[in-house]
Write a structure and sequence with these properties.
mainly alpha, Rna Polymerase Sigma Factor, Chain: A, Arc Repressor Mutant, subunit A, 2 domains, 8 helices, 62% helix, 0% strand
Length: 176
C-alpha cells in the first residue's frame, strides 16, 4: 500500500534550527554564570545554581520557541531556580558580589563614592532586595516585568526597590 503525498507541502526553509543543550551551554555559560554570581554572591552557590538551571533547561528544551531568545529563556530559568532556593530557606550568600561601579551609576545615590564601599553596601542587602535591584538596574526590567518574574504584586516590587535604594543611601552616607 502506497502512502499518498500530502496535498499541502510545508517548507522548513524559513524555520530556524533549535540548538541542543550542549550548544546552549557552550554559547551562554559565561553570561548565565555571571548572572548567577550576581544573584548569589558566592562562586559555589553560583555554580550549583547554573548547573541546576541547565539541568532544567535540558529537561524542558522543547519549550524553547525561538533560538534567538535562548539567553533570556536561560536567565528566566536561572532566576526561577534562585527564587525557589529562597523559598526553601536555603542560604544564598550575599557577599562578594561582583558589580561594576559604572553599571550602578544609574542608582543616583550619591555624587561620588568609593567602589569598594558601594560593593559592601550592595552585599549587605537582603536577598529579596538585592534581586529587585539586579533585575531593575542590570537586567533593565520594568516593575511589571519584575513583578511577573517573582510572582509578586507590582507594589511589592516598588517597595523593595525603594527600600533597597534607601538602605544603600544610608550605608553610603555613614561612610562619608
Amino acid at each position: 500500500m502506497e502512502v499518498p503525498e500530502p496535498a499541502i507541502r510545508v517548507s522548513n526553509e524559513g524555520a530556524q534550527r533549535m540548538p541542543d543543550i550542549g550548544e546552549l551551554v557552550a554559547e551562554h555559560y559565561r553570561a548565565v554564570y555571571a548572572y548567577a554570581y550576581r544573584l548569589t554572591g558566592n562562586a559555589n552557590d553560583a555554580e550549583d545554581l547554573v548547573q541546576h538551571a541547565f539541568l532544567i533547561a535540558q529537561q524542558k528544551i522543547d519549550q524553547l520557541r525561538e533560538a534567538s531568545r535562548a539567553k533570556s529563556w536561560l536567565f528566566r530559568i536561572l532566576r526561577n531556580c534562585f527564587l525557589r532556593s529562597l523559598e526553601k530557606k536555603r542560604p544564598a550568600a550575599a557577599s562578594d558580589v561582583a558589580i561594576e561601579v559604572a553599571d550602578i551609576a544609574a542608582l543616583d545615590l550619591v555624587q561620588e563614592f568609593d567602589s569598594e564601599l558601594l560593593q559592601a553596601a550592595i552585599d549587605e542587602l537582603p536577598a529579596e532586595f538585592k534581586l529587585v535591584v539586579v533585575m531593575f538596574y542590570f537586567d533593565q526590567l520594568s516593575y511589571k516585568e519584575i513583578a511577573k518574574e517573582i510572582d509578586s504584586p507590582i507594589g511589592t516590587v516598588m517597595s523593595r526597590l525603594a527600600r533597597a535604594k534607601a538602605a544603600l543611601r544610608r550605608r553610603l552616607a555613614r561612610n562619608d
